[in-house]
Amino acid sequence: MADREPGAPVADALTLDPPDDGGARYWLTRFNPAAKLVAAMVLGLGLVPAVDAVTGGVVLLGVLALVPFSGLDRRTLLVLGGPFLLMGLSSGLVNYLYGVEGLEGAVGAAVRLLAIALPGLIAAAGSDPTDLADGLVQRLGVPERPAMGVLAALRLLPLLADHWRTVTLARRARGLEAGRNPARMAALFFGRMFALLVRAIRTGTLMATAMDARAFGTGPRSRARHSRWGTGDTLLPVGALLLLAAAYALSARLGTLVLLFS
Question: Per the UniProt record, which residue ranges are transmembrane (predicted)?
Fold first, then answer.
């Protein structure tokens, strides 16, 4: 078995916890999660007016360059980013078939959606959930109830991934295989989805009851940890703004800039 770098994510398990060492390779994990969320919001809101492929493409390439330093392993990124990739491709296909801009508009729609979604995915999945909740409450002023809801949701994602794997193996052990039958495959998939939904509702109900029993959101609470904010955390949203400005400038210079309401 090949040696794994200390602190690197395990390849065969879905995890939202960044590497413990936060070494030079995963330097993006050093930033406050609140700063990463603000940077993602800057990029997302800033890309709303631009519908061309160049503006979104520059931002997307810039964000993709940061993925190796985010602490996310490839499997986690594929699992969590797969739905966004599917939405991007679907949006591009719909725009190509029914839009008036043709292929250029289709590519622009797909790239724009991915460029908006990817920074938020890195900010959320590349941060420790507890640090993220602390940053939301202490730095962004988010009420405790929704912040704790975000923390609970992020902690439940690996659990639901394990439950999905368990359901799949259990049905396979009972001989429920689709083979090469697409209809059977779809039926089994939606059956697993229903089982996962039931498990998620039960777990969410138990967790909500436990949080209510501990009086979350009913009044001021003490802080177990302080959410630190350094100079780098201030510079990160500024860097996102500069990337956005560079994308708009390049697109305008090339004459490809197309605004939403132009």
Answer: 37-65, 77-98, 105-126, 235-261
Name the nearest CA neighbour of 55 among 229, 261, 250: 250
Q: Which residues contact 237 (CB under 8 A, 6 or more apart)?
A: 35, 38, 39, 42
Which CA distances in Å does 110 have to 76, 90, 115, 217, 256? 21, 8, 9, 39, 16
Please spell the DSSP secondary structure of 39-79, one letter per residue: HHHHHHHHTSSB-SHHHHHHHHHHHHTTGGGTT--HHHHHH
pLDDT digits (tens, 9 = 90+) for 201-247: 888 888 878 877 877 766 667 777 888 898 999 999 999 999 999 99
50 DSSP β-pair partners: 259
Task: Classify the C-alpha dihedral 206-208-209-213 as positive or negative.
Answer: positive
Tell me the one-letter amino acid at 38.
V
Which residues lie across from 259 on neighbouring strands?
Answer: 50
Instruction: Match 């679907």 to its residue by tokens.
Output: 90
